[in-house]
Design goal:
The chain is of the alpha+beta class. 31% of the residues lie in helices and 29% in strands. The chain has two helices and five strands, in the order βββαββα. Strands 1, 2, 3, 4 and 5 form a five-stranded antiparallel beta sheet that branches. The chain is globular.
């Protein structure tokens, strides 16, 4: 099973995921990353901050190749994307 890494990019700083997660395919990795983003955004809302809304997940494979970049804002329902 492939291992995927979900690094968080905040402005020019990348917070590296040292462990990664084993998932069956890229679609499962994206779905898992989006759920994680929603958890982070929910916590930010509970704390009354909005700084996480500009972050992104950089999804890479074991070789460090960037497979996709998922802006946190894309994890919101479409109706809420314009509200930030």
């Amino acid at each position: 099973m492939p291992r995927y890494y979900r690094h968080i990019q905040r402005n020019d700083v990348v917070l590296h995921d040292p462990e990664g997660v084993d998932l069956p395919d890229i679609e499962a990795a994206r779905a898992e990353a989006v759920q994680g983003i929603r958890d982070v955004l929910a916590e930010a809302v509970r704390q009354g901050t909005d700084d996480a809304f500009d972050d992104s997940i950089v999804l890479t494979d074991e070789a460090g190749r960037v497979l996709m970049i998922i802006p946190f804002i894309e994890a919101l329902p479409p109706r809420l994307r314009g509200a930030t």
